[in-house]
Each structure stands twice: as C-alpha cells, then as structure tokens.
Amino acid sequence: MQTLLVTGGAGFIGANFVLQARKSQWANVVNLDKLTYASNLQTLAELQDDPNYHFVQGDIGNSELVSNVLEQHQPDAIINFAAESHVDRSILSPQDFIQTNLLGTFQLLEASRLYWQKLSSQRQKQFRFLHVSTDEVYGSLSPTDTPFREDTPYAPNSPYAASKAGSDHLVRAYYHTYGLPTLTTNCSNNYGPCQFPEKLIPLTILNALDGKPLPIYGDGQNVRDWLYVADHCDALYLVLRQGCIGETYNIGGQNEQTNLNVVEKICAVLDDLVSKSGFKHSSLIAFVKDRPGHDQRYAIDCGKIYRDLGWQPKESFDSGLLKTVEWYLSNSAWVDSVRSGAYQNWIKQNYEDRKAA
Ligand code: NAD
Ligand code: DAU
Fold first, then answer.
1. Index of the ligand 2 atom closest to the CA of residue 88
2. pTM for the full model?
3. pLDDT band at 172, cuts 50/70/90?
4. Which residue out of 36, 41, 229, 262 has the highest number of ligand 1 atoms within 8 Å of its CB and is therefore the one to mutate?
5. What's the whole-number average pLDDT of the chain?
6. What is the pLDDT of residues 69-127, one digit of tens each?
7. Domains and CATH numbers, the chain
8. Is residue 60 scored above 90 in pLDDT?
9. 215 lines ligand 2 (CB under 6 A)
10. SS3 content of the chain, % helix, strand, coil (to 5)
11. Substitution site in 86, 87, 256, 264 for ligand 2 pocket (most atoms within 8 Å of beta carbon)
12. Minimum-distance ligand to the CA of 40?
C-alpha cells in the first residue's frame, strides 16, 4: 500500500491514525476533512513539512471534489473516519448526522466505486475501502447479556447510531452489489490524546482542572467498553492489510467500566498529579438529568479479530488514562484552541437545562 486516502483525519481518531501512519511509514497519506467544530489541524502540525502527507479541506458528500482527489492522488485504499460523532448533538440536531454519516458516506462510496472500476485488475484486487463504524449500531445490552458479536442484529437507538447503521448497510451493499472491496469495523468507546472535550473523558479532565462540576448522566451506572486510541489505530491498520473483504470486525478494549467509575478514576489521577492541600476532585461530581434514550451498556466480543488477525488491545485502562490526563496537562495550547465561543455555546446548550437530578 503506497497511498492512503484518510477522510476525517483532522478529528480525534483520524488524526491519531494519520500521525501513527506517517510515524510508522505505513503509507503516504492524503487527508480529506471538512474541518467541522470537532477537527483541529494543530493536532497534525508536526506533519507540515512531511512531503508524503497532503491535506485537502472538503466534504465527503461533495462527489466532484472526492473524484478529483481520487484521480489526482490515486490511493490504494480509503479509510473513512469522517462523521458527526457526538450522540448528544445528534439528539439536539440530527440533520447533520444524516447529511454526513449517511448521505456523505453514500457519495464517498459512489465516487470510490467509479474510481475503483477504472483501475487495472491488479490494482482493483488490492484496493480496499475501510469504513470505521461503532458498536452503538448494535443497541443496548443489559448487565447480563453477552457482548456484541459481528452477527449481533442491528438495533440503533440514537440518531447518531441510526445514521452509522445506515452507512454500514450501504458499505455492505457496495460489496455485495458491485464487488467494491470493503471492510467494516465496529469499535467501542475510544479515549486518548486529542479528543474533543465534548466526550466524557476529556470533558471530565478539563472541567476538573477548572474546578467545574463533573456532570454524570442519570445514576452513572451506564457501562462503556473503553479502548485506547493507539490500540484502535493498530487494529485498523491490521484490518486494512489482512482483513477479509466484505467482512466486519468488532474492536473493543476488553475494559467495561461504569461512567461513575471512569470519572472517579480520573479524579484519583488528578488528585495524585495536581491536587493542592488534599483537594478531592471527586467532590465536583454532579449527577444530572439523563441523556434521552441512554443506552445502558456496550460491550464488545473481539474474539474474531483476535482469532483471525491476532489483534488484542495492549494498553491497560490505568496506564491509558494516566497517559491521557498527562497529555491534556501538557497541551494547554491545544486545549485553548478548541474551547472557543462555539464550544462554550455547546456546553450551555447541553448542560444548562440538566442541572442537578
Ligand atoms: P470526531 O468527531 O473527533 O472527528 C470527525 C472528523 O470528521 C472531524 O475532523 C470532522 O471535521 C470530519 N468531518 C465531519 N464531517 C465531514 C464531512 N462531511 N466530510 C469530511 N470530513 C468530515 O470523530 P472521532 O471520534 O474521531 O470518530 C471517527 C470515526 O470513528 C467516526 O466515524 C465515528 O463514528 C467512529 N467511532 C468513534 C468512536 C469514539 O469513541 N470516538 C468509537 C467508535 C467509532
Ligand atoms: O461506543 C462508541 C461510541 O462512543 C462512538 O461511536 C461515539 O462516536 C462516541 O462519542 C462514544 O459515544 P458515547 O455516547 O458512549 O460517548 P460519550 O463520551 O458522549 O459518553 C460516554 C458515557 O458517558 C455515556 O454513557 C454518556 C455519559 N456521559 C457523557 C457526557 C458527555 C455523562 O455521564 N456525562 C457527560 O457529560
């Protein structure tokens, strides 16, 4: 694989993937990103003099632009991270989620199919379209249910999850109908450096550092399966190279935690690293009004990717969380750049009416 088109490579997971791809020389990278509120080009600043990295600002839903990028850069594979990714935003304004996650993925698939059909038969065989999706498409588990497998029926519960489920179905259809060599991954909650602070872990770290309340939806007993982002990126590269076309792979952290537990762990790390006069960050915890339709539990059975490709997560939650907190402590310029007026508006919009439950 020489050239990889990465979409959404200025967001959290995409940027971590691009940095890893260039550092480990997995491939030359062309990064196509619309630069929504969730993106940050500062994350990729170290690549500005890299001749094998190109950035293009644009929308995956703009088929003319995508076709031009494909013709110009002739990628051997595409990895699609581009999405609206925050569940709470999908509840308050679902339109953008349908536009990018569903219609955008459709336009990207269509442009990719037209490009792929014109390749030589050898390049056609080697070409891959990897779609990065989520475990949320499988719906919600009870505490005693077995974890999601690749054959678990889809049951998305939020507009975000439904838009991702729709995109997964389109990817499947492009493989079955046109033979486009697709792969789909369904991953659990990621955490790590450079995550936009609307998501639980970075929001908690930054609010705690500012002495602000740490909002926990409902009773804090909802469970997520946390995966360190670098482990996810390694898994994606492996699927890209060795995954069986037309297949889906579940990727998880083997690390189920209640939200309350996650927040308490972050508080304990901060108590060790920055507390003055014995201040307990957990005193900032505030239980607030629940997320509508809040899925109770996600858990991933990653037996297939382990058996077929030999992947398993390397990072423990304790070590990954420590690295993550340390990253936010050492990158205040990055943090300042993402907490603009638009971010403050979001915090007001999402939390003002929640208050104490
Ligand atoms: P993110 O919100 O941090 O970044 C998304 C990126 O996509 C941003 O840079 C944004 O500018 C770009 N983008 C949005 N709309 C676009 C469009 N129309 N055209 C081009 N670029 C566009 O998201 P993330 O957390 O990095 O997630 C990446 C992917 O992984 C998403 O598809 C998401 O559904 C999936 N996923 C995320 C997680 C997680 O825990 N974060 C877990 C499983 C799966
Ligand atoms: O499971 C994979 C998904 O994980 C990805 O597909 C999504 O893109 C990603 O955003 C994430 O979705 P979640 O909704 O699980 O992540 P979030 O960080 O928003 O919330 C994690 C849990 O914490 C969830 O149960 C809701 C809760 N929560 C979240 C926020 C922002 C709180 O209790 N308080 C909060 O302020």
1. 19
2. 0.98
3. very high
4. 36
5. 97
6. 999 999 999 999 999 999 999 999 999 999 999 999 999 999 999 999 999 999 999 99
7. 3-193+227-255+294-316 (3.40.50.720)
8. yes
9. yes
10. 50, 15, 35
11. 87
12. 1
Q: What letter represents residue 171's amino acid?
A: V
Task: Check if 160 is active-site.
Answer: yes
Q: Which of 33, 59, 84, 135 is flagged as catalytic?
A: 135
Q: Tell me, using a 6 A CB cutoff, whether residue 329 lines ligand 1.
A: no
How far are the Cα atoms of 85, 185, 285 from residue 159, in angstroms, in the given order? 10, 19, 28
Contacts of 233 (CB under 8 A, 6+ apart): 13, 16, 17, 20, 21
Task: Report how far ligand 2's centroid is from the alpha carbon of 85 (Å).
Answer: 10
Cα–Cα distances (Å) from 231 to 9, 23, 147, 192, 204, in that order, read 17, 15, 19, 10, 22
Q: Any catalytic annotation for residue 136?
A: yes
What's the pLDDT score for residue 278?
A: 92
Say yes or no to pLDDT of 356 above 60: no
190: which 2 tokens? 């990621």
Confidence band, pLDDT 50/70/90 cuts, at residue 355: confident
Distance between CA 178 and CA 163 in Å, rounded? 22
CA of 84 to the centre of ligand 1 (A): 6
Ligand nearest to the CA of 163: 1
pLDDT score, position 1: 75
User: Cα-flanking dihedrals φ and ψ of residue 302, to 5°?
Assistant: -100, 35
Confidence check: pLDDT of 357 > 70:
no
